Amino acid sequence: MWLHSNQVNEPANILNTSYANIPPMRLYPNELPTGEYMRVVRVLIKQLHAFAQSAKADDTHLAELKKITIPMIQGKFYIFLRNLIHRWPLDGSFRLVLELWLTYIQPWRYPPNNLIKYLNKRSPNPDAEDVTLAPQNSVDREYLPFIAENLLTYVVIFQQLLPRFGRVDLTSPKMSLMLYRITKVFDQPNLPAYLREVEQCVESDRVVYLWEGESPHHRHVTNHWTNNLPPLSPTSNWSTNTTFEASKKPSISPIINRTSFLSRDSYMEKKWSTIVKQTIFELEGPNFVYKPLFSDPPATEVILLREYKL
């Protein structure tokens, strides 16, 4: 209910609708959620992260529900964010959207409550938005499956956000703080390496398809796909919503630590690639071509933003 954001017109007359069939709360085309609405959704995401992670210490039947909690909402949340970012005005209130996104992509900040462990120990408040320069903790490898399943939420949302900062005054403390928050989150130890690792699995598998003359993502493409997500930046050198030209020479992002990449178990490599391709097909459609965040050269938006800051 909270993550529903279809951009379609609802029936005007629902007087004869029974209580059991009342449609869920919807955001209409020209309507933005209130600040309180956004805060409620953010609290929901925090609670779901904690609930899902508590499955590790749960041997009851409830553990099965905990394991599928995040997969159940991750697609709706991605669509919810993509539409909000497209429609939100260029002002300081965008911080509500930004923090909601950063909350979702950092599940390690919201472990399940352990009252016995923390009863006499002051623990950091996960709700506090850290703006200090203190060293950050490393992201544990146990979150790699979450990163792979939500790669679009990390990368495509990042690419959708970046052009906004080229259209605002970064001398404003509110605006510069938002950009700082993004860079601080993506600078967490191990997080860039995990994102790169998953991207390399996708890229490695994509090259095979290209040389076989296949679609980079799916061998069978339906002609009845309708994608209602907002368009991405028309100048983007990252993801596109146009059909990939197989005749183009594939560009591969530079591989850091090539030895570890080549020695990685092929099963895991295929697993991450399959997960990402299925997510792309379900959320963005068969014509969407994913291009890596760690591209060489960097995307145009990155260069433009750097020049704008200077």
UniProtKB/TrEMBL annotation:
It is found in: Membrane. Pfam families: mit_SMPDase (PF14724). One of its GO terms (cellular component) is membrane. It is a single-pass membrane protein. InterPro entries: Sphingomy_SMPD4 (IPR024129). This is Uncharacterized protein. GO terms for molecular function: sphingomyelin phosphodiesterase D activity. Keywords: Membrane, Transmembrane, Transmembrane helix. Its main location: membrane. One of its GO terms (biological process) is sphingomyelin catabolic process.
